[in-house]
Amino acid sequence: MTTTAQPGVQAGEWYRTCFGDFERGLNGESGTPLHRMRREALECFASAGFPTTGDEEWRFTDVGPIARGRFHPVLKTEPHGVRRADVEAMSLPGVRSVRLVFVDGHFDASLSDIPELPKGVRAGSLAQALAEGVDMVGSHLGSLAEPASSAFTALSAAFLQDGAVLLVPDRADVSVPVHVLHVASGRTTPFLSSPRTLVVLGRGARASVVESYHHAARNVYLTNSVTEVVLGEDAVLEMDKVQNESESAYHVGSIHVRHQARSVLTANSISLGGAIVRNNVTAVLGAEGVECTLNGLSLATGRQLVDNHTTIDHAHPNCASHELYKCILDGRARGVFNGKIFVRKDAQKTDAKQTNKTLLLSDEATIDTKPQLEIFADDVKCTHGATVGQLDQNMVFYLRSRGIGLIEARDILTNAFAGDITGRVHVAALREQLDRLLHRRLMQGRLAGETELP
Question: Considering the domain boundaries, does residue 343 fall inside one?
């Protein structure tokens, strides 16, 4: 029988107490519109509580360990052992880029690197932009990720302090990747990190963003991240997210995207770490001529759980969406995929394709997959499907007949399965980094399996 988290009375009380400590340290800031939003978000969270498996959107993912945990919100910057050498190892090797480093959700200027940018482009700390009263930040922050939409989004908003901001004016082209690097420190007390990212591209603007989540120690913590993306007319954004949290950590990440006419988004999400991981992606195609591509790869071993929920809302005609999510599961790992495509009544000439493929490397790994189409228009081209399978034993035999060992043969075929997604990552150095991380995670999974399963 699946255990479920209670609807958060104790959790609400714990975070209400933490919020009181947070509020007392704000001094004059407690009267600002931002803090009023925080208070309202806290009330949303306290009234709703953490979701349970009785909620349709969470029925395959039990967040009981998160709800029962007492995670201390990180209220100020303390590196806790994060060194520049660590950050360099997590960065994009050999690539000129904008590097924005956040330790436990707080910007660290000493570890960041911001080269000269095109005129009008702003990349840096969200807290600083809020303090300076930057109009584009105030008008867009929280406009897509409403606290009432999710308990985790509400909790993130309640403790919102810092994050990354990228503002690109009309027709500007950011020619180098903007790497938003989140590092979980070595704090010994379980902690809550609530990083935000706000990306706003003006008309005809172009940019490439890499969001990555790494850890400095194998400790217990909760990363509760929210990213909002606003794309102006004819804007083009390439976006890659890499989640490589501690195997004892929890990660809940939400990405909200709003498209304007003829804007283009290509987003790749890679999940490798974390004990319980939930990735939410919501894209609203809010004008004609939009193109939205969402790709994802999850690798889970041991007893990991990785849950990917995506929603693409075709609200206007003549738009296209393409979605390919792959999952590799070993040991006793569990995967969840729930992909929704809405086609509104007036969204004629919609072209939407959604595919989910899962590779099971163990007889004890499981996947719950639910691709969904809800179509209210009659002139559309929409397809969806899901496949679940194991390694092709004929291919394994073929490779072994060529003198390749069993483990190496399995790894070659597994990497080929994953390569369909990692090969779409926009930054070559990141693709190479991912190849190494995938290989390491597969090896760690085998070692864990040898320990758990005699």
Answer: yes
Question: Across 330-417, where does the E strand assignment appear?
Answer: 334-343, 350-360, 366-375, 380-389
Residue 82 lies in a domain: yes
Tokens representing 65 are 């360990």
pTM of the model: 0.94
Residue 259 three-state SS? strand
Q: What is the mean pLDDT of residues 146-170?
A: 96
Copy the structure tokens of residue 13: 């009380």
Cβ-count burial 239-277 (b if 16+ within 10 Å, e if not): bbbbbbbbbebbbbbbbbbbbbbbbbbbbbbbbbbbbbb
Segments forming the whole domain that contains residue 306: 9-452
Above 50 in pLDDT, residue 1?
A: no
The reported pLDDT for the residue numbered 353 is 97
Q: How many domains does the chain have?
A: 1
Coil vs helix vs strand at 289: coil
The number of residues in the chain equals: 454
Say if 2 falls within a structural domain. Answer: no
CB 270 within 8 Å of CB 297:
yes
